[in-house]
Amino acid sequence: MSDDSQRHRASPRNVPGLLLSLQQDRFSGAVSISGSIGGTIHLHRGAIHAIESPGAPTAEALLLKSRRIGEPEWDAACTAAGPGGPLDATLVEQGHIGAAELEVLCVGALYDAAFVMALSTPDSWQVDGETPSPRLSHREGTDPRRLTEETSRRVRLLAKSLGSVREFGQVRVRPSARATAGIGRLSARYRDILLSADGRRTPRDIAFALGRGVYPVMLDISRMKALQLIQPEPPRPPATAPRVAPRDPAAEPPRAAAPTGGGLPRRAPADRRPESTG
Fold first, then answer.
1. How far apart are CA 201 and CA 170, in angstroms?
2. Which end of the chain, C or N, has fewer beta carbons within 10 A?
3. pLDDT digits over 64-106, tens only?
4. How sure is the predictor about 19, in pLDDT bands with cuts at 50, 70 and 90?
5. pLDDT at position 238
6. If DSSP codes are grouped into helix, strand and coil, which group holds residue 214?
7. If you write DSSP's letter for every residue of 9-28 in order, what string do you get?
């Protein structure tokens, strides 16, 4: 690790401060964030071009899960682009998606991952100038300050209706009886959420299942909750292990004494006498 990486890792007090410092240095590389919801922030000359987090769908997941692009078409584009090749340009050239639509999708994935990562406190970070960039990213890049402001705005907006956004993101949800009775009159977007809300999925799970961003799904769910269309699944009672009474040697019946003499008792043969003939 370089001296610059060590300095950036140790000096800022938080991730936004770190990104501003890297912007001033026109840094190109990645910042790996560890924590309950970690991720990797990719920068080019100080601008943020992509964020990858296990808590939010990537641009690839959004394309495939939403069925904007089929898997055969995706595989064909990857083969044509080759390892490390311009996959975004190949997708556009092959007519699978428009350039403007792909750019909007990449920007949405970037901001969504930033929102998800903001719902947890990072444990540590590491700066690396050698990490390769993802194959789909925001071409122009976004300003770190703008990204931080938009992320904060999203969290504040959801907090007005949901309370703790972090806690609600981990709650399993299901349709209400009212929603089930009138599901045919709802918009397609709301119907998709209701059909995915099976009482086992969290808002984040629903976003992955539908190929949508976590923030847009949580925003829809907050509105549906206000309309009494969706409700949290009641918490499940904790599983209890069967109680086992402690062993009391005094309460056990006495065991039969084992035979002594080394071995099993042998049956004695009967007397054999000649029968009388008289």
1. 9
2. C
3. 999 999 999 999 999 999 988 899 999 999 999 999 999 999 9
4. very high
5. 64
6. helix
7. HHS-SSHHHHHHHHHHTT--
10 with 96: CB under 8 angstroms?
no
- What 3-state class would DSSP assign to 44? strand
Does 257 or 175 have the greater pLDDT score? 175
Please tell me the distance from the alpha carbon of residue 214 to that of residue 158, in angstroms, as a whole number: 12
Q: What is the CB-side half-sphere exposure of residue 81 using CA atoms within 13 A?
A: 20
CA dist 21 and 7 (Å) reads 10
Distance CA 257, CA 38 (A): 66
Largest pairwise CA distance in the chain: 132
Task: Select from 20, 275, 37, 278 the least CA-distant residue to 144.
Answer: 20
Contact in structure between 135 and 88 (CB atoms under 8 Å): yes
Distance CA 142, CA 179 (A): 39
Tens digits of per-residue pLDDT, 3-13?
444 444 445 67
- Angle between helix axes 203-210 and 188-196 (nearest 10 degrees) is 120
Instruction: Find, among 141, 152, 131, the residue nearest to 16 by Cα.
Output: 152
- 278 SS3 class: coil
Q: Quick check: 32 and 126 in contact, CB under 8 A? A: yes
pLDDT band at 252 (very low <50, low <70, confident <90, very high): low
Instruction: For residues 57 and 214, give the distance between their C-alpha atoms in angstroms, rounded to a whole number.
Output: 8
Is the predicted pLDDT of residue 151 greater than 60, yes or no?
yes
Is the pTM for the entire model greater than 0.90?
no
230, 189 Cβ separation under 8 angstroms: no
Angle at 186 between CA 182 and CA 188, to 5 degrees: 135
pLDDT of res. 177: 87
